[in-house]
Structure formats: C-alpha cells, structure tokens
Design goal:
Length: 205
C-alpha cells in the first residue's frame, strides 16, 4: 500500500473516530436525561404506592426497557450505519471531495489510479481537518450535559428531597441491597399496660 493511500486512510479513520465520539456523547446525554426523568417519575409512583415490591419491579422494567430502546436507536444503529457509510458522511460534511472518497473506497488497492486519487484527495483533506467540521464544542456540550445529569441523579439518590432519595435508591439498587427503604412500621414492645387509652406517649428514636 502506497503512502498516499495510507495517509488518506488515516484521515478517514480520524474523521470517523470523531463522528463516533459525537454519537457516543449525544447518546450518553440522552440516556442520562431519560434515566433522571424516569427515576423522578418512578420515585413519585413508588412513594405513592408505599414502596410495594410489584410497583418497584414495574418501574425498574420500564426504566430498563426505555434505556435499552434509546441505546439501540441513538447508539447501536447509528454506529452500525456509520461503519457502512463513513466515507459518504465525510463527503456530506466536506462537499469539496465531490465523490472522490466513494470512488477511492470502491477501487481495489492494486488499482493503478488509486494512489493518484488518494494524493488528489489529500490536498482537499489538508484544507478540511476533521476538527473544523466536528468542533470541540459539538463534543464538549453533550459530554458536559451527560456529566451534569449523572451528577444530578447521584445527588437525588444521596440527598434528594423527602422520600425521593429512598425511591431513587430502591429503583436503582433495591434489587441488590436490602435496607434501602425508609422505616414503614413502628413496633412498641413490650408496651406499657399502665398507659391510659388515648393518652399521649413520647417516643425517642
């Protein structure tokens, strides 16, 4: 394989890597947002149903199905499509290539004109580095959004308002760890028969 062909392949690999990174970060932000919203909704539901085991199971199933569907639609299928259409995507962003990349991909490595085509395409590639079309802000914004949403979800489970912290813990970790639910019953044993019926009793915990 000649040097121009290797250099153009490296350019396309770098462009494809940047496109994949953008897909990953956008999907991460969407998944984190969905997880936070469903956790808030699920916590509300389980709180108002007394943290019932059946309700918790349904909420967990809904959360899992939604995240799996989003991962399939926003990540798995787009990544598969990108692998098949990488050169077309690059040409869509850099119209100056004008079909050169698709022709380059179709030619076998032994074709005598492939190196000449690669050399011509490299002149255009030099004017269109990947970062000029997929800017750092396009990667940083969804990455920062995903980080903020994950931190919000962690805060909700650690110090969320009212019973929402218990709902979050129960949804995400209640299937694995016991003792994450709030106290729901108070037992007084052995009791005091001398307490007058209807009287007030101070309970210290």
């Amino acid at each position: 394989m000649s040097e121009p062909i290797e250099r153009l392949q490296a350019y396309l690999d770098g462009f494809g890597g940047r496109l994949r990174r953008a897909l990953w970060l956008r999907a991460a932000a969407a998944l984190a947002l969905a997880a936070l919203v469903v956790t808030l909704w699920g916590s509300y539901v389980v709180i108002h149903n007394g943290f019932g085991g059946g309700t918790l199971a349904l909420v967990r199933a809904a959360l899992l199905l939604l995240l799996a569907a989003l991962a399939l639609v926003l990540l798995v299928l787009p990544l598969r499509q990108l692998r098949c259409e990488r050169d077309r995507r690059v040409e869509a962003l850099t119209v100056e290539f004008d079909g050169r990349l698709r022709t380059f991909a179709d030619l076998p490595d032994t074709h005598p004109f492939k190196a000449l085509l690669a050399q011509d395409a490299l002149l255009i590639a030099a004017r269109h580095p990947p970062h000029s079309h997929i800017r750092a802000s396009r990667l940083a914004l969804p990455g920062a959004a995903a980080a903020v949403l994950v931190l919000a979800l962690l805060w909700l489970g650690a110090a969320g308002p009212g019973l929402y912290r218990y709902g979050t813990r129960a949804i995400w970790a209640g299937w694995r760890f016991r003792g994450l639910l709030p106290a729901q019953r108070l037992d007084v044993d052995p009791g005091d028969p001398g307490v007058r019926r209807g009287g007030n009793v101070t309970v210290r915990s």
